[in-house]
Structure formats: structure tokens, C-alpha cells
Design a protein that fits this description.
The chain contains 8 helices and 7 strands, in the order βαβαβαβαβαβαααβ. By secondary structure, the protein is α/β, with parallel strands linked by helices.
């Protein structure tokens, strides 16, 4: 129960890795608020795990303020924020439109920035001896270019810079807040399963993306997110944590 007495908010929690994280956090003893724009799935998961659902558009300052006000009213504190909400474009630079670019950057980067800024406002008042942890969901494409999604690649690279800046500022301000990035590799979520359902050969393609020869499970990403939320990561800030099966470590074989 390493997250006992911690209050956590996870965005984009109605499916995939976000869902895996909220389920793990509850198992580890946290009080969990899960947010998404998908109210139906979010409310179902909240009911299953004993959490609370908040409808939250991460690009909206009003929604962020309302979410933090609710959590502050309920518990007086927030210990953990996971900025997990994100979208893709599946468009190369040649096919990219300005509307596509602006939408993905708004959700993936501006949404994370608003989450960090809002969370810091409440985390800075945590009781002495208590710390806050902000986990910004990045990707292996933070460091490896994805040819067919220029804006997603750019947004996840931006998350690394954003995180390092915020982590450094919090440390220099002597605030009890850690900020790190989590970089999942190819993970077997419902989105990838939809590709496999259409073309079964895609499973082999996804499995071969890492030297370990298989996709990650959402609970494996959640385990790393649990470590970063816990006091076990008390000296970790501004750092990038990978759960990618060795994808970013491997040179292409001859």
C-alpha cells in the first residue's frame, strides 16, 4: 500500500494506459480521481474501482480549476498528478494541416502545461513532510522521430523540455514537488487491438518493435507510474523513465 493516504488525479483515464494507472493506484492505496472527456467509460471505471470521475477537457483552464477545486474541497490536497491525456494525428508533415497541428499540441502540450500549473498551486501547500509528484506521459517518440506523425512526435519531445523546466523551477523554489516523464513503448491497448482486429499480422509488427519481442501490458506501465507517484522516487525529478522493452536502446541489426 505504498500510495496509502495519497490523493491522485489521472487524466485520459477512461481507457488504455490511463485506465491501467488508476486501477494500480487504487490497489496501492491511493484515493483516485480519474478524468476524461469520455464520461460513459470514465464513470464505469470509477464505479468499478471505487474512484471518482471528473469530466475534464485538458485544454480548458476552467475545467482544470473546477477539478482542483473539487479535489481541494474533498481532501484539501493533491499528492499526485498524471498528465496522461493525449491524441495523435497520423499525418506526416506533408499531409499536416494547421488545424491538426494546433489540436494535437493543445491537448498534448498545453493540456500538460495547464495541469502542471494548476497542480502546483495546490501542491505547494502540502503539509511538511509530504511531497507531490507530477508525472507527464511522454513516449519513445520523444527521442525517435515518427515519420507519419510529425505533430505527435513534436508534442512528446516538447513534454520533455516542459518537464525539465518545471522540475528545475520547483526544486529551486524549494517546493515539495517532483516532476518526471514516463516513456511507454508499444503497449497493448484497445487502440492497438483495433489495428490487430483489422489486420492480424499487425500483432507481429507491434511485437517486433522492441528487442524483448512483445508489447507491454498496460499494468507494466502502471507499475512504473506507481513508483514515480510513491515516496520511493523521492530523489527523482526532471528525469525520463522508460518502459519500452529496450526499444530506444537498440541499434538496428544488420
Amino acid at each position: 500500500m505504498k500510495l496509502q493516504d495519497k490523493v491522485a488525479l489521472v487524466t485520459g483515464a477512461a481507457s488504455g494506459i490511463g485506465e491501467g494507472i488508476v486501477r494500480r493506484y487504487v490497489e496501492d492505496g491511493a484515493t483516485v480521481y480519474l478524468s476524461d472527456v469520455d464520461s460513459k467509460s470514465g464513470e464505469r471505471i470509477a464505479s468499478e474501482i471505487g474512484g471518482a470521475f471528473l469530466k475534464l477537457d485538458v485544454t480548458s483552464e476552467i475545467d482544470w480549476s473546477a477539478a482542483i477545486d473539487r479535489i481541494g474541497s474533498d481532501h484539501g490536497r493533491l499528492n499526485v498528478l498524471v498528465n496522461n491525456a493525449g491524441i495523435v494525428s497520423n499525418a506526416s508533415i506533408y499531409d499536416m494541416t494547421l488545424d491538426m497541428w494546433n489540436r494535437v499540441m493543445a491537448v498534448n502540450v498545453t493540456g500538460a502545461m495547464l495541469g502542471c500549473r494548476t497542480a502546483i498551486q495546490i501542491m505547494r501547500h502540502l503539509p511538511k513532510g509530504t511531497t507531490g509528484s507530477i508525472i507527464n506521459m511522454a513516449s519513445t517518440v520523444s527521442f525517435l522521430g515518427l515519420a507519419n506523425d510529425a505533430v505527435y512526435t513534436s508534442s512528446k519531445a516538447a513534454i520533455v523540455g516542459l518537464t525539465r523546466s518545471i522540475a528545475t523551477w520547483c526544486a529551486l523554489e524549494k517546493l515539495p514537488i517532483r516532476v518526471n516523464t514516463l516513456h511507454p513503448g508499444t503497449t497493448h491497448t484497445a487502440i492497438l487491438q483495433s489495428y490487430i482486429d483489422t489486420n492480424p499480422d499487425m500483432k507481429n509488427t507491434f511485437d517486433r518493435m522492441s528487442p524483448m519481442g512483445r508489447m507491454a501490458r498496460p499494468d507494466e506501465q502502471a507499475a512504473l507510474a506507481s513508483f514515480l507517484a510513491s515516496d520511493d522516487s523521492s530523489y527523482c525529478t526532471g528525469a525520463a523513465f522508460f518502459a519500452d522493452g529496450g526499444l530506444t536502446a537498440a541499434h538496428p541489426v544488420m
